[in-house]
Amino acid sequence: MNILNKLKSLSVFYWNHLQWIPSHVIIQGNEIADALAKEGANDASVPSEPLTYSELLSRAKRRNKTNWL
Question: Most CB within 10 Å of its CB: which of 6, 13, 54, 69?
């Protein structure tokens, strides 16, 4: 219920949209998100400050570019 309370408090300032994404279905970007989530779960180091959206996007692009090459 804590998540619902957080979403409710955020909805005062932001519009929230939750959408169910089925697994095991080819959805653009889903594989990248899954790989990053698994990597994050296995990473023992936790950043002291939360990442900004732009930093997260930059890291994902850099990782994707590295994997592509």
Answer: 6
Say if residues 21 and 30 touch (Cβ distance below 8 Å).
Answer: yes
Q: Is 29 left (phi over 0), alpha (psi -120 to 50) or beta?
A: left
If the chain, 69 residues long, is cut into consecutive pieces of 10 residues, what is the mean pLDDT of each piece? 82 82 74 82 72 86 74
Q: For the purposes of burial, counting CB atoms within 10 Å of the CB of 64, is it exposed (0-12), middle (13-18) or buried (19 or more)?
A: middle
Please spell the DSSP secondary structure of the chain, one letter per residue. -HHHHHHHHHTTTS--------SSS--TTHHHHHHHHHHHHH-----SSPPPHHHHHHHHHHHHHHHH-
Phi, psi angle pair for 45, to nearest 5°:
-85, 135
